[in-house]
């Protein structure tokens, strides 16, 4: 094996690619990792981590603004975006340093540059060909726009520019009421901006259970985040110092900025995948439940594979592929068991099926649901957060869906995920002792109620 030959050659060092590299190296395989940007990809540099830092700063702003309701005298004197930016960048750079150190310590060869698949087992980077006994495609995704809607980077922006803004805009139109749109709407509102979300679908975060969308909408209404659902975007014009956005029905909304958050497309264009016979659909790489493409020895992980575009899905697929290549016969990932979180204020977290899908699958008589209001949960009262735990079970069967709404409920999804993944029954969970007073206790209470023995609730 020469320096240009690897057991595993990975194209793209985002969540999926670097997780695969770390695990493969741990298993003793010789790994080459090709990256044209920065190791860590979207999630670390322009996705999960920086957005969650902004959301935390937003939470601190809300705490200062709302301190009086807890008897604490404080005033919010403004947002210093330069400082918010350095806090955010500090978090990213510490994690980046840790990650690059880890990659180096595992003996992974990092190949810097723009790679292209030039043979079924060959990637060419800046004129040099590298070969792999196995090749893993992990080139990630990019922010999409709509036909005719041009991103100019100053008044019409994507999440990448939004993360770099050096000021709090006075007003913003957010095009797209999905996870990314709702997170930025939440941040900007906490920082004091006038926010309008324009969404073509009938509700915000339409991929979530309808009850969760409705709860988020109620909370956003209270926070004076305006949203127009079922309202397609029609066009945008420059007003000199901002934008005028026209939506179906004729309303024109003027704002300083338009954030385009209409989803993410697969970054696969021009990378040679199709030429090498890799089966694709609308730019996505088709892979089976073992992350195998139709080309022998070529795998695909992360956002380029149809399904949930989430970092932790990419991590798990990367680990899976490394173990598969090492012959460990890992268990395929259950996509429905992947937890999903919208980190706005309030948060939405879920795992398993939503109610509509559960009804489709088992019939309306084949399921039972229970909603436990956080009003009965001591810690939620202390924190003054509102929301619920909604459980969906198969009639006389296991829990098939858990849906949470409330401040920081994302932190509770781990237990829900175990219950779902281990096919737990409400009766199995009910006797588990949950610490008091915690928000986590709400999950325990909901299962008690579903098992027919409610404690701090009526049903
Ligand atoms: P990426 O992370 O996009 O990595 C792909 C890498 O491949 C990049 O580094 C790129 O430079 C490199 N590359 C591409 N083409 C080539 C080439 N030809 N040659 C060499 N290198 C190449 N997910 C969550 O789970 N939680 C969150 O809170 C969350 N928040 C998000 C917030 C925002 C604003 C965004 C945009 C995304 C968020 N995501 C979140 C999604 C998450 O970031 C992605 O699901 C994840 O990064 C996908 O990992 P990946 O490995 O498929 O691709």
Provide an overview of this structure.
With 459 residues, this protein is α/β, with parallel strands linked by helices. It has three domains: 6-142 and 265-335, FAD/NAD(P)-binding domain; 156-262, 3-Layer(bba) Sandwich (FAD/NAD(P)-binding domain); 346-450, 2-Layer Sandwich (Enolase-like, domain 1). Helix content is 31%, strand content 25%. The chain has 13 helices and 24 strands. The strands form six sheets. Strands 1, 2, 3, 4, 5, 6 and 19 form a seven-stranded mixed sheet that branches. A five-stranded parallel sheet has the order 8-15-9-10-11. Strand 10 (194-198), helix 7 (210-222) and strand 11 (226-228) form a beta-alpha-beta unit. Helix 1 packs parallel to helix 8. It is globular and about 65 Å long. The mean pLDDT is 97. Bound molecules: flavin-adenine dinucleotide.
């Amino acid at each position: 094996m020469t320096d240009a030959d690897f057991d595993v050659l990975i194209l793209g060092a985002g969540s999926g690619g670097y997780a695969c590299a770390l695990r493969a190296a741990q298993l003793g395989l010789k790994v080459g990792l090709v990256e044209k940007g920065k190791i860590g990809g979207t999630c670390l540099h322009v996705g999960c981590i920086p957005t969650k830092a902004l959301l935390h700063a937003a939470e601190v702003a809300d705490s200062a603004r709302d301190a009086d309701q807890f008897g604490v005298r404080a005033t919010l004197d403004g947002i210093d975006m330069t400082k918010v930016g350095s806090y955010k960048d500090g978090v990213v750079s510490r994690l980046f340093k840790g990650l690059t150190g880890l990659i180096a310590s595992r003996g992974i060869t990092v190949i810097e540059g723009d790679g292209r698949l030039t043979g079924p087992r060959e990637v060419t980077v800046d004129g040099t060909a590298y070969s792999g006994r196995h090749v893993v495609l992990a080139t990630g995704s990019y922010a999409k726009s709509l036909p005719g809607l041009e991103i100019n980077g100053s008044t019409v922006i994507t999440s990448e520019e939004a993360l770099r803004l050096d000021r709090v805009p006075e007003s913003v139109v957010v095009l797209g009421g999905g996870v990314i749109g709702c997170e930025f709407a939440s941040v900007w509102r906490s920082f004091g901006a006038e926010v309008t979300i324009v969404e073509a679908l009938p509700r915000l975060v339409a991929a979530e259970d309808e009850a969760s969308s409705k709860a988020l909408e109620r909370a956003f209404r209270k926070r004076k985040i305006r949203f127009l659902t079922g309202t397609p975007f029609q066009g945008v014009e420059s007003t000199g110092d901002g934008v005028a956005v026209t939506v179906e029905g004729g309303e024109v909304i003027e704002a300083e900025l338009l954030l385009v958050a209409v989803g993410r497309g697969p970054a696969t264009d021009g990378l040679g995948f199709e030429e090498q016979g890799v089966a694709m659909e609308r730019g996505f790489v088709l892979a089976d439940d073992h992350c195998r493409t139709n080309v022998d020895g070529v795998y695909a992980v992360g956002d380029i594979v149809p399904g949930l575009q989430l970092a932790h899905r990419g991590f798990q697929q990367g680990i899976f592929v490394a173990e598969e290549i090492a012959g460990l016969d890992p268990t395929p990932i259950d996509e429905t068991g992947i937890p999903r979180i919208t980190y706005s204020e309030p948060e939405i977290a879920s795992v398993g099926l939503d109610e509509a899908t559960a009804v489709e699958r088992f019939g309306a008589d084949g399921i039972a649901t229970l909603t436990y209001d956080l009003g009965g949960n001591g810690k939620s009262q202390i924190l003054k957060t509102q929301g619920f735990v909604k459980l969906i079970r198969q009639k006389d069967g296991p829990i098939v869906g858990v849906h949470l709404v409330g401040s920081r409920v994302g932190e509770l999804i781990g237990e829900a995920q175990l219950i779902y993944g281990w096919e737990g029954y409400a009766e199995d969970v009910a006797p588990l002792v949950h610490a008091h007073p915690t928000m986590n206790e709400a999950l325990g209470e909901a299962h008690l109620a579903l098992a027919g023995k409610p404690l701090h609730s009526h049903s």
